[in-house]
Fold this sequence. Notes:
Layout: H1 2-12, H2 23-36, E1 40-48, E2 51-57, H3 60-73, E3 75-86, H4 94-104, H5 109-121, H6 137-151, H7 179-187, H8 196-213, E4 218-228, E5 233-244, E6 266-274, H9 281-291, H10 299-308, E7 312-314, E8 320-322, H11 324-336, H12 343-358, H13 363-378
Helix pairs in contact: 2-11, 4-9, 5-8, 7-8
Amino acid sequence: GFVLSRRLWQAFNQKTLSAGRVQSPVLGWVIKRAEEAREKKARITFLLFGHPLVLEIEDLELGAKVAQEIAQTLSWSVVKEEEKTKNPLPPYTTDSVLQDASQKLRFSTKETMNHLQELFESGLITYHRTDSTRISEAGRYQVARPYIVSHFGEEFFYPRGWGEGGAHEGIRPTRPREPKEIRYMVGAGLISLSSPDKALRLYELIFRRFMASQMRPAKVLVATISFKTPSYEWEDEFVTRILQEGFEKMYPTFNIVELQEGARPEKVDLKRVPKVELYTEGTLVQEMKKRGLGRPSTYAEIVTTLIQRHYVKVLPGGRLYPTRLGRQVYEYLKEHFPKEVDEELTRQLEEAMDKIEAGTLDYQEILQQTYEIRRYLEE
């Protein structure tokens, strides 16, 4: 990264530019996604059973036709009904809390990490740079159990470890304190937070998701509905009834839809939308986790760097779009140093670091290879 950054300074006569083994491949993803987003598809939104339903069709002409047919001739029928078990989501990890904070709270990755750091330093949450969902016995029995039993009853407590080993747990509250208790402590001067309202909104996400992760599953009745128009058919599933309450009392992940015989669609809306969505800061972090690039400690820093270097701009709605400078820098690196900015090299290096930590690979071998790459770049 240091060597390639100097090459950029020379090529563009700007010392504010930088490159990196994770930063540069990730910039390439943003550019590629922006190109893919130029292609459009049809998105039809309509109200049925009192809920907005969405149908997406790749063919724009067909989409326009189906939208008209939905408004005029849509028919539906129940194909089957069955009992299903719904389980809660696991506790947050760095990547998943960054995504939810981006989507639900409209926080930037940098802003989220700053709030997480304050919550951690105040002793309110466990360590926030983690890719583990594991929950310790202390978390299950000393934090989750007292709260769940007192608020919902013993029968709702369903302890889960969510994984084994690892240096850190998933992100969870350190004590069974609701957000309103923390707010009182802030007001009383017992805890200091630079932006209490935002920090507590984030704490509430963490608190609710963790508590739900230690609650029993929900048993629900699910109806499979067949929809038909003259030109198109599709099926969808709807939860129509809760048979046994569970985690959804704390952190719902599904809606209850009441089927109404003879219900007709309302407010049919047709839009041309990108076939793939532009990344947000949150979904870009998720992509890094999925592809194995970066670490929990660097996710936010990488995204923030791309924005601060003016390689990427944040559009209304939080979508990320490459700037002209970002495209020029990436094209230069791709043309002159294709192997060094390929994500496979970074992935191999991060796998090697894991093996060194596990004692199955000699670190000197990797240092020698890295030195040879650097010497080549400096020539």
